[in-house]
Amino acid sequence: MHRATQIAVPTLVRVKEGALDRVGIYLAREKRTTVAVFVSEGLQAPLPDRVAASLSAHGIQPGVWVEVADNRMETAAQLFTDLPGSVTALVGVGGGKALDLAKYVAFLARLPYYSVPTSLSNDGFCSPQASLTLQGKRRSLPAALPFGVVVDSAVCLAAPVVLTLAGVGDLVSKFTAIHDWKLAFHATGEPVNDFAALLSDGSIHAFLSHTAFDLTGIRLLATALMLNGIAMEISGSSRPASGAEHLISHALDLISARPRLHGLQVGIAAYIVSVLQGANTEQIAALFDATGFWTAIAADPFSRAEWIEAVRQAPSIKSNYYTVLSGRDATPYVERLLTGDRRLRPCFC
Ligand SMILES: [Zn+2]
Q1: Which one-letter DSSP state was computed for residue 17?
Q2: Strand 113-117 to strand 129-134: parallel, antiparallel, or no bridges (unpaired)?
C-alpha cells in the first residue's frame, strides 16, 4: 500500500562557484553559532582552511573539528558520544566517508546537518541513508536528508576527474534502477512511487542536455544527484537510485581484491544491466563516450573473473529485491557480453 507522501526537503541549497567560502554566512543566518565540523582526512589544501576562515569570519565556533579517516559505525557512535551539548549543527566537508559519518551523527543527535561535498563521486551527499561499515561489512543505514546542501561548483570541477566520472556512473544507474523498479511492480506488485520515478528520470535528462565538465555541467550533475537523493526520501526506499547494477557493485565490494569507486563500478554495471533490460543502452553509451568514461575505465581495467562472480552473487545480496537478475541466471550471457561487446571488451582483463 502507498503511504501518503510527506517529506522534509533540504531547506538551504546552494550550488555555485565560491559557495565553500560562504558556509560561515549560511550558518550565521540560521544562528548556528557553535557547530561540529567533520572533514575528510587529507582533504586537499586549502579547502579545510577556506571553511575554517569562513566560519571565523562570521563568528561561528567549531566546537568540534574532526578529521574523518573511516566510516565505521563504532567511530560514529564515539563521535556522537563526544559531541558537546553546545553544538547546534553538524557540517560534513569533503568526500563519501566524512559526509556519511557526519550525516549519521547528526541523525543520531537530531541536529541539522549541512552537507558540503568537495567532489561529486556519488549521490550520497544528499541522500536519506548513511553508508557505514559495521564489523567490516558495508551497511546502508536510515538517516535524514541534510538541512543544507552547499556545493561549490568550482571546487568540484577542480576535483580529480575520475571522481566526477564516478558521479556520472552513479547517475546513469538511475535508468536501470527505475527500470528494475517497474519490473518489480509487474513481477511482485511492489508499488512504484510515480513522482519519485519521474524525479529520478528527469534529473538525468537535465545533465544529458549539457555533459561537459565545466561549471554548468558540474552544476547540472550536482543537481541531478541531489534530486535523486530526494527521490529516495520520497519513495521511502532506495528503489529510485538502486537496482541490479548496485547489487553487482555491492557484490564486487565483497569479493574484489581491489574494489574501485562505487560510481565507476555502478556505471559499468548499469551499462551491462541496460543490455539485459533491453532499454537505455545507447543513451548510457553515448554519455560515456561524451564524458570519457570508457577511456578512464580502460586505462585501469576491471577483472573479468571478479565481475562474472559478482553477477552470479548479485541476486542474493539483498533479499526480496526483485531486479532483472531475479529468477534467471544471467551469468553465461554476461560472460559472453564482457568479451563480445566492443565497448565492454577494453574495460576488462
Ligand atoms: Zn549509488
Answers
A1: T
A2: unpaired
Q: Mind listing the pLDDT tens digit for each residue in 140-194?
A: 899 999 999 999 999 999 999 999 999 999 999 999 999 999 999 999 999 999 9
**70 DSSP 8-state letter:** -
From the CA of 21, how far away is ligand 1's center (Å)? 28
Please give the helix or strand (H or E) that residue 220 lies within, else none.
Answer: helix 215-235
Rounded to the nearest integer, the mean pLDDT of the chain is 95
Quote the ligand 1 centre to 242 CA distance (angstroms): 6
Rg (CA), the chain: 20
Distance 169 CA to ligand 1 centre (A): 8
Q: How far is ligand 1, taken at its centre, from the CA of residue 122, in Å?
A: 6
Peptide bond into 62 cis (omega under 30): no
Q: How far, in Å, is the centroid of ligand 1 from the Cα of 298?
A: 21
CA 204 to chain centre: 14
Cell 565481475: give the residue. Answer: 307
Torsion of Cα atoms, 78 then 83 then 89 then 90, to 10°: -30
What one-letter code names the amino acid at 120?
Answer: L
3 — pLDDT class (breaks 50, 70, 90)? low
- Whether residue 223 contacts residue 210, with contact meaning beta carbons closer than 8 Å, is answered with no
- For residue 222, give Cα distances in angstroms to 101, 126, 196, 218, 285: 20, 10, 17, 6, 21
Distance 63 CA to ligand 1 centre (A): 32
Strand partners of residue 113: 90
Q: Do 247 and 318 form a contact (C-beta atoms < 8 A)?
A: yes
pLDDT over threshold 70, residue 25: yes
